[in-house]
Write a structure and sequence with these properties.
With about 270 residues, the protein is an all-alpha fold. Helix content is about 60%, strand content about 0%. Helix 3 (about 100-115) crosses helix 4, helix 4 runs antiparallel to helix 5 (about 140-150) and helix 8 (about 185-195) runs antiparallel to helix 9. The longest helix is centred in the C-terminal third of the chain and has 20 residues, at about 200-220.
Length: about 270
Amino acid sequence: VLGESLPCLKLEALHDGDRRSIFDGAGTHASRNVQYDQLTTMLRQEERDSYRCCDYLQNYPSGFDDDALSQGEKSINEACRTSIAEWMYRVVDHFRVDREVVAIALSYIDRVLSANHCADRRTFKLISSASLHLAMKVHFPNKWKDIGKLIPDLSQGDFAIGDLVGMEMEIVKSLTWLLNPATARCISVHMLSLLEMEIPASVLNKVASAAIFFVELSVCDYSFATMKKSAIAIASLLNATERDIDVHLRIKKALNEIGCRIDWYEISFA
């Protein structure tokens, strides 16, 4: 699979002190209104065709993966996407970049490949590296310079910085400069923020931690690529609170107050 051709970094586990709490108990009516407006904007955004993706892997041949073929001859499959997602998490953990950047980069990849054909796994590797580079450049500009110059080296000589920049421009054109997708993690945190005045911060942080864990698992799984991020966020929150009935019911009440259209069938599938 693609992961076999990617470098393996020596990583250090994040200590508890490295993880910042999301909620501090300082929620106000004003901040709640801001979070509500931002959340409704994200929910409207995911209804736009430009932010959706299709089951693009059905357009590629499946079957026996011939080891005799080179990376330039093999077509992509689910294992390729899973491997690249796991590799991205290893990279951002190593350089201590917010893990949210991986979900953003995968959004770029899925949307680009929904509209374009990927010739082979080497090209997929370049698209993936350029997507991670672009996501860091847009959302974490203080980190991208240090990491970006290392990406060609991490490719083990498959491409140079010029190839990365060229592919980055192709990605931007394909996405029509829509580089700020609403991620499941962002939506779930905003949904919890609506309860900040009702539930202790310690409880919200515990729920957020569990929900984010579920969300990050979904990022690596191709079967969730075509699903609405709000459905993934809601399913993650409900799973994270299944043992706390009070918080569970409050989340459902908050969802009704938002007034968003909830596809419970899709959520149950997630």
